[in-house]
């Protein structure tokens, strides 16, 4: 029976250790990367929105159709101040928050698919006016084409010369819209992700349905692990030799695991986050990829790793405090048990009263023989002898 109790207590200690470690890791993830509010605040404080517009425009110029005059880059260079004035970081933050809320509602089962609508109509209208004016100014500056070099069609953005016939306003508007459609987030006035959903028969559709279920079960994991840890701690306490030893074992489990989490949290917060600055993507990487990593990926990753490490550090401190409290309870219980054993020791050896001890010692002596005698004859043997008086000398009477 003692061996069985030892096995159960040992397995319970291992189980509690794994449960509280998983609890710290899963809870840290749900408080950071799986938390919509945290993602919003981290993106806002990491400076991502300040660099996103210039990166998108730079990527558009690099991926556009190559032309001899490289007019796309000229347009971007000329319109960068206008774009930064119209497409502000606040506008980007508002639309990114809509995307995050759409995914968050989907994971929580509020929608069947991630659904969000982004409205670019006002920005597209503002940029359209500026780009249209730029195209007209460029057309005026182009030389007139010779009759041997007359193009069959005229593109005011990419042409090297202009025909004698002035294009109409609709021609300039068409060229403006064609350019705006080259910008990723300005192809449509409104973008609704729900329009890109696949049919229910495709494998990707099953993924959209499975992910929310997995997320809901994962969100219950911290509560389940907490309950299992409490049950394991109760088993350790009640199956130990005494409660003081059981609380001491609980203190060992929480203190050791708390120290481990403390080391991991300090390492993540103080050292690991700074290692992202040493990321080297190689000299052959595209410029837009390098800029994305430097301006968006690295700042966000540093914030994320630091936050996760900070929460793990907090859990480590909490576990160490629980371990110290368990040690204190064990000490208090032990101090109460020891005096009780000392007080019970004399009672276990003899149940007789102190006044009965002489009787126990005299039971082996002639007192036992006196038990058969009458009560009045329990005097000493010397009292049975007749009383004698010492002889007196006879008195002599002298007559004169």
Q: Averaging pLDDT over every residue, what do you get?
A: 74
Q: What would the principal axes of the Cα set say about the shape?
A: elongated
> Low-confidence spans: pLDDT under 50, at least 5 residues?
59-70, 340-384
Number of helices: 11
Radius of gyration: 47 Å
Helix content: 55-70%
Strand order of the largest sheet: 1-2
Largest sheet: 2 strands, antiparallel
Number of strands: 2
Beginning-to-end CA distance, first to last residue: 113 Å
Q: How much strand content do the residues show?
A: under 5%
Structural class, judged by helices and strands?
mainly alpha
Order of helices and strands: HHHHHEHHEHHHH
In short:
With 400 residues, the chain is mainly alpha-helical. 65% of the residues lie in helices and 2% in strands.
Structure description:
- With 400 residues, the protein is an all-alpha fold.
- It has a domain at 2-120 and 188-335.
- Helices cover 65% and strands 2% of the residues.
- The protein has a two-stranded antiparallel sheet.
- α1 (2-31) runs antiparallel to α10 (287-349) and α3 packs antiparallel against α4 (71-86).
- The protein is elongated and about 110 Å long.
